[in-house]
Amino acid sequence: MTVQPKPRPGKRINDPEGMRKKVLDVAEDAFQARGYHASSIGDLMAAADVSGGALHHHFATKKALALAVIDERVAAAVEETWIAPVLAAASAREGVRAVFEAVAAELEQQGFVRGCPLNNLAHELSLADPDFRIALAGIFAGWRRAIADKVRADQQAGRDEGTDPERFAALTVAAYSGAMSMAKTAQDAGVLRDCLAGLERSAPSQGGSVARRRNRILPRPRTP
Question: Which is nearest to 137 in space by CA: 188, 173, 96?
Fold first, then answer.
């Protein structure tokens, strides 16, 4: 077996993909912990231990780096935490309940709440730049679409026929996003369970009322 020589201290290894990943790791953590505007390029370079030329080789601007974090990290987090578990669940409602409970348990074990990665950047960046707003809105739209599609699949199987898929999806995303914001400010993951309980009580009746409103026959106008 040939033993590869160890790199000398201070010598950089030519690993462009590894360097890119490291910059993304550092930027993702900084944007979530301190915010995009409070994280300077110099801070990111120092934390990632890369030169300005190396960083700009992968990300021409700080904005380009932020868009990469949104597209590659935040979207992936929503996919892993929400979309995949809900689509794999026996029903949309069971999937939603499982996600709320799993996130609450993880945060309680972790001991602190940093917030929803999508929520955090949406609050800071949606009005700062149209490209940020469009990228973030696309993730929210995909999240809602996945939940609504799962409800429609349930209905095709004869379940949950009284629920409006789009409204249930919007209410679910809003409940979770709001719960995470409150949990972050209170540093109390129990808020997620409170919001889940409210969601489960309100969503069925809301869906039923929507269906009833659609099927209701309006009275004929009186003839003068």
Answer: 173
